[in-house]
Amino acid sequence: MLTTRHGVRPLGAADLDAFLALARRDPVVNVFADYRATTTNLEPRWLGGEMWGRFEAGELAAACHVGANLVPIGASVDDAAAFAERALARGRTVSTIVGPQDAVRTFWNGVASAWGQPREARWDQPHLELAAGPLVAPDPLVRRTTREDMHELYPACVAMYTEEVGVSPEYGGGADLYRARVTQLVNRGWSFARFDDTGRLVFKAEVACATPYAAQIQGVFVPADRRGLGLATAGMAAVVQLVRREIAPVVSLYVNDWNTSARRVYERVGFYETARFATVMF
């Protein structure tokens, strides 16, 4: 087994079983990495990057997804520091560092001097889970979206992304790619929304990734003029019910610590904190 300094090397298809065993030590927190591994077989051409592994005594001890997103998996502080040293040798190619707070902080401290000023760093993001039915009544009008809904759904996705991230997903010519991503989620049955009597979208959410163990929610959105009416609470309850019945038994998401209104919604539905994430965006 060829390894580099500190026992770090890129993983491949032959490492898939060992990687999945590592990720599934915490299958909800690591749902993104598990999903990426099982859908790409750890082949770089499908990953759009690499999956690094750190080995101790010949055993896989930690990993790091390095694509558009850099995500530490099962990484201790020492593991994250070793991944940072490898990352320094290749320069920054990622747009986001995201994952468990301590690992992200350690990694960032290791590369900050060379990777430049981030656009934003969010150091306190509660990671929430729900492995039971919602605590409030689901909105019966929430349903899966179809391609016929794209005229309402796509602008809502752009608005949510822009509000959340601070830059439009269409910036720099990204509209076609982002529309393809939204369409892909619709085709998978991973996009949910509620429409009012006029056909206007008033709530939406998507499943970002899923495994047999968990599904991670993203893109929760209510238009600004419809907030405070309980649409998000009842809508999320419906999404939880649908996802747990048809996709995965545990529903997860992470939220900015300062977003008190969103946190109240998730608490009412029944979500509880299981970890802290952090995100550094470029």
From TrEMBL:
Coiled coil: none annotated. Residues 140-282 form the N-acetyltransferase domain. Keywords: Acyltransferase, Transferase. The keyword S-adenosyl-L-methionine does not apply. One of its GO terms (molecular function) is acyltransferase activity. Its EC number is 2.3.1.-. InterPro entries: Acyl_CoA_acyltransferase, DUF4081, GNAT_dom, UCP21603_acetyltransf. This is GNAT family N-acetyltransferase. It comes from Nocardioides hankookensis. The lineage of its organism: Bacteria, Bacillati, Actinomycetota, Actinomycetes, Propionibacteriales.
